[in-house]
Amino acid sequence: xxxxxxxxxxxxxxxxxxxxxxxxxxxxxxxxxxxxxxxxxxxxxxxxxxxxxxxxxxxxxxxxxxxxxxxxxxxxxxxxxxxxxxxxxxxxxxxxxxxxxxxxxxxxxxxxxxxxxxxxxxxxxxxxxxxxxxxxxxxxxxxxxxxxxxxxxxxxxxxxxxxxxxxxxxxxxxxxxxxxxx
Length: 182
Hints:
Layout: H1 2-21, H2 56-62, H3 65-71, E1 77-78, H4 91-103, E2 108-114, H5 121-141, E3 149-155, H6 166-172, E4 174-181
Parallel strand pairs: 2-3
Antiparallel strand pairs: 1-4, 2-4
């Protein structure tokens, strides 16, 4: 009986061994997956960000002194022969200039006094200085601080018109303005 039991056991083991040694069938690979095309989302570009328009102050500050002076925001005034008092027709011009100076409070200007060719160099330098000073005084009376105003006299050394007649001389008797700081 022992023998029969051992024989049955050996048979069971042999069958188990044979089953386990049976060549395994290769699993069939899964069918190739169809790659889905990536979904392309329509990219909506944001509207270009508009840079804000520069303010008047930014435009002003971006300009060089040379560019500002080329624009001539401050108008010249003219004087009578051998006179240095601000004429009545020059007052509105100086009021407009004062308004501009009040708008741009950081600016400093140079007031240039000029004369025509008649008279000596010394006389014309003194007269040009008086013209620049009377112009400065008038602007101060309109509320422009004196520390923003400088004066200089060029006498007859820088004429606008080289002519030697009354029309040319009238153009040369002037006070003109140069922006020197902003």
